[in-house]
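Tutorial handout. Part one gives the primary structure; part two gives the three-dimensional structure as tokens.
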Amino acid sequence: MLTKSSTELVRQQNSALVLASLRRHGPLAHTDISHHTGLASATVSVITAELEKAEVLERREQLASASRGRPRVIFGQRRDAGYLATVRISSDMVQYSLADYGGTLLDRFEEPRNHADTATRPFTEAFVAALDKLADRSRIDRGQVLVVSISSKGLVDPQTARLVWSPVFGAQQVDFAALLQPPWRAKILLSNETLLVAHAMALRMEKAGARDLQAVAALSLGHSIGLGIARFDRSGELSVTAPNFGHMLNSSDGKLCRCGAQGCIEASAGFYGILRTAFEVPPDTIPAKFVPLAEMDKIALRARQGHRMSEYAFRQAGLALGQGLSRVVSLYENMPIAITGPGTRYFDLLQRGLEEGLAQSQQVRLFGAPPISVVPEEATLVLEGHLDRALAEMDHDVIVARTVGD
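Part two.
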């Protein structure tokens, strides 16, 4: 029994290596798969044959570079082996996307949210209807959707797919697993949005050939503040966490946060915090549920024209962010920081305060500030994170199902 279990485990691990290699490098020939995975060519041949028989992989012909010679056989994912749906829940809209097993985006649409309505029932009803619409538009049977991957800012329980606290619904929880099953038999994944951003940034930097890359942090600026940290271990495996950065207590100035606490980073650096400071509203005023970008643009324009309180609001926001990041680098040491989200359009106004807050860390004073880059396309990063994590989950389930089927 022990021998059988050990053999199955090795088969699963080797199959996972093959599928992960194809995810990272695209369609490959036997020799290339063997090179990237370190597996013997005979082992790769057995695995690809099994996965081809299971209709997970398909063989394709790649024309030789020269005019003569036989086409080279390469292997890639069979695109119709399964599908995944991704859902991004944000303060002003919900974005729905559908992709195939090869990672090709098939459909996407957005539905606006009613900012005045924070009840979960209207949202959940619209959520289920939108997923049905997503499948119907591409004529995909719901049974073919193997994973539904959902993201939101806030606190999530990935084990139960439960949204615990969010800027959208506050303490009203949403149990996505109970909501979608049994009509949807797909595996339900729930992630913090900025965790997905950090995951995608780490993969981008790795593909770009970043040297000695051990970790990267993603800081999301907008209606709420999020942080994701992606770390590579010695074997190159990626692990990602999303500490509750925006709601980390930062000051005793009495600024009321949306979470109900006073002095959180977000209470100063979120859009509602900047608005409150710019208009000299008492710090314990109940935060605005939603601040339109057009309103933030007006405050930013006034700041760039020299309006004192508008300038001060952005500088204080940057200071809170920098002080928070100074604690992060003190705990984890320096790492590249990618700043993303709609708040990047005001980075010129935030930068001075952010650098001042970072400089308060002994780590920064001794070893210099971490490299900071501005990456505005947050929505693209979220989708990239969704796809990579969900497709890896699909690969795992395919491998387990094939082994159990044997």
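Part three, for discussion. The radius of gyration is 24 Å. The mean pLDDT is 92.
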